[in-house]
Design brief:
With 128 residues, the protein is α+β, with helices and mostly antiparallel strands. The chain contains three helices and six strands, in the order αβααβββββ. The strands form two sheets. It has a three-stranded antiparallel beta sheet. A three-stranded mixed beta sheet has the order 5-4-6, with no helix packed on it. Strand 2 and strand 3 form a beta hairpin. Helix 2 crosses helix 3.
Length: 128
């Protein structure tokens, strides 16, 4: 899988990819995933985990999702959008059918729209 994505399959990268795949669909933060790896007995630095997650997202093995000043790495790589609760820090996929996006502007000359990502911020209703 790494070779197909153009990534050299080093032992740390293979270990990190295996942990991602074994964990099923989820939204990772570098810090929580680093702790998960440490708890499983792997001794990677947080910088290694962060760099590897970014490298995997650049190769479309993960999706990087920005929510304000936080970033998550989504293991679901198909096109989809997210709900985000800023109070709890919880992010989840919007189930299909996905929202329709209309009226996008023309990109600048020489550019094309690669993707459109919608993050719907949620807030709990009063007295709920």
């Amino acid at each position: 899988m790494l070779r197909e994505a153009g990534i050299r399959p080093t032992t740390p990268r293979m270990t990190i990819l295996r942990a991602i795949l074994d964990g099923g669909h989820r939204h990772l933060t570098p810090e929580s995933f680093h702790q998960e790896l440490v708890d499983a007995g792997h001794e990677f630095s947080l910088a290694t985990v962060y760099n590897t997650l970014n490298h995997f997202s650049e190769a479309d093995l993960l999706r990087r999702v920005g929510c304000g000043d936080r970033h998550f790495f989504c293991t679901n790589t198909k096109e989809h959008h997210h709900f985000y609760d800023a109070r709890t820090g919880r992010i989840e996929d919007i189930p299909d059918p996905q929202p329709l996006i209309a009226g996008l502007p023309e990109p600048p000359p020489g550019m094309m729209i690669e993707a459109v990502e919608v993050v719907i911020r949620l807030r709990r209703l009063p007295h709920s």
